[in-house]
Design goal:
Order of helices and strands: EEEEEEEEEEEEEEEEH
Distance between the termini: 42 Å
Helix content: under 10%
Radius of gyration: 20 Å
Strand order of the largest sheet: 8-9-3-2-1-6-7-10
């Protein structure tokens, strides 16, 4: 996918990396000018961002909710005035690649769980595919209603940990219809219990031993 395939008003994430510092900023497409995209001026903590430093790595990430996010690497952003209005002009040297934004350790689960939705009093049966401190992958036999996807309440029981109940809240980032039947949803966690990080760390350590 090329940057020029984006459309006006679509939102992207601009990720800036400098040594160990990483900052994500929201941006919105204002105009498409050939291979250059004009973004409404990007602000961070109330200030217009200066992207001119050659030491900053810029990555543009786009999520459409239908598939894994796409990312353009080695992007360049400059201030530009067009028609008397200022923009951030974005360019990328190569087409996007599909990326998995969960760069933190995860555990493969493949355990049954429950998804709390409005039309299923007892919860919808799901399979928890994987879990990390900022995301979860789930599989369902039926399609989840669109209005549910922004606020998903998920829980499962870990029988290996004295039947500890793990509860998380998430929103769908991407989805995929499986050829074998059913649907897979990649979700970002909105809220978790305080012990989730310890739980995941313990599971990773146990599996390495």
């Amino acid at each position: 996918m090329k940057l020029s395939e984006l459309k006006k008003d679509q939102k992207v994430t601009i990720r800036c990396k400098f040594k160990t510092l990483l900052v994500d900023m929201n941006a919105q497409v204002a105009e498409i000018r050939g291979e250059v995209i004009l973004l409404n001026l990007i602000r961070h903590e109330g200030q217009v961002v200066d992207f001119s430093s050659p030491n900053v790595q810029i990555i543009t990430i786009y999520e459409d909710g239908l598939d894994m996010p796409r990312a353009w690497v080695n992007c360049k952003i400059q201030r530009r005035t067009v028609g008397g209005r200022e923009y951030h002009a974005l360019a990328a040297p190569k087409p996007s690649v599909r990326v998995n934004r969960r760069k933190v350790p995860r555990i493969l689960m493949n355990v049954p769980g429950k998804l709390r939705v409005t039309n299923e009093p007892d919860g919808l049966d799901i399979i928890i595919h994987d879990l990390c401190v900022n995301g979860i992958g789930i599989q369902t036999e039926v399609k989840i209603d669109e209005h549910e996807l922004k606020h998903l309440q998920i829980d499962f029981v870990d029988e290996e940990a004295d039947e500890e109940v793990i509860k998380v809240e998430a929103r769908m980032v991407w989805k995929k219809e499986l050829k074998s039947g059913g649907y897979f949803y990649g979700c970002r966690l909105n809220h978790t219990e305080e012990n989730l990080g310890y739980y995941i760390a313990n599971k990773i350590r146990e599996r390495r031993e």
